[in-house]
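Inputs:
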Amino acid sequence: MKHQLNGVTKAVVLVFLLFLLIPMTGWSKEAVPVAEDPEVEKRMLTLTENLRCLVCQNETIADSRADFSNDIRREIREQIKANKTDPEIIQFLVDRYGDFVLYNPPMKATTILLWFGPAALLVFGLVSLIMYLRRRRVQIEEVSLSQAQLEKAEALLNEDKKGKNV
Amino acid sequence: MMRYLIPLFAFLVLAAFLLVGLTLNPRQVPSPLIDKPAPKFQLSQLQEPDKIMSSDDNLGKVWMLNVWASWCVACRDEHPLLVQLAKTGIVPIYGLNYKDERNTAMQWLKRYGDPYTISIVDSDGKVGIDYGVYGVPETYVIDKKGIIRHKQIGPVTVDSLEKTIIPLIKELQQQA
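Outputs:
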């Protein structure tokens, strides 16, 4: 009997303790929605995939967790909601951060080397290779041996064979 | 003889390019805002939140805009220099308190000294984006017509002040 009563008291105390936890729910917050508007988010992502984070220079703004990228993403979302076109948004960022934010740099006098440098190097390499190979073909001329030289070589080779057999 | 010199020559050219590359700082991205009008702003002042400061208030004088924050470690490095510069009275320094808490920012100024004629609050970093800020501290030199003439990315140093910033400011002050 005493044992059972103990069990009931235990349960009551436990329930009471659980009630004490109720105010804890006040601490929790509503989960921040990852994307308020999937359409806006999609456009923002396609835009930022081609933009460089200036803080972590090898990451796109879409990938980067840097504060800077957060701000830019927020800015782009706002501009999309304000019905700005993609070129307008890109121009907004280029005006402030320069062509460096673009992973696809525009063709300009300053970027000619960037655009055509690798191709120029390839052409240069190919031309030098061809020139080298041509010159080498001239250098390697087949020299024909005279009859006497051939016989001498034969004799030497045979001598070698004999030596090995012994 | 010549054919042995060609690879050597090619190597020297490559080495020279790499050597120059080593001295460049990849974090210093040239700002497209140089020689362009400074973006306009109207922001609440740090010490007196009710008062608004506008970028147009400074038309007619050469001034420096220093972007700082109490959470920014490098700002602490350059701060004594700014305090010194402010004391010389060569140029008024305005502070853009970037993405910071008002109270922490004011405590920070109390602790390290306040070189700023006025500090303005850019709590959400919007004006920062307009100015192309991507790493505090950054410092802009703005001329009498409100045109950005120089941008220092990262902390100002004795060297950058003496060799670039102060001569530039003196030159700009001579202009009408």
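Remarks. Residues 35-174 of chain B form a domain with the Glutaredoxin fold (CATH 3.40.30.10). The mean pLDDT of chain B is 92.
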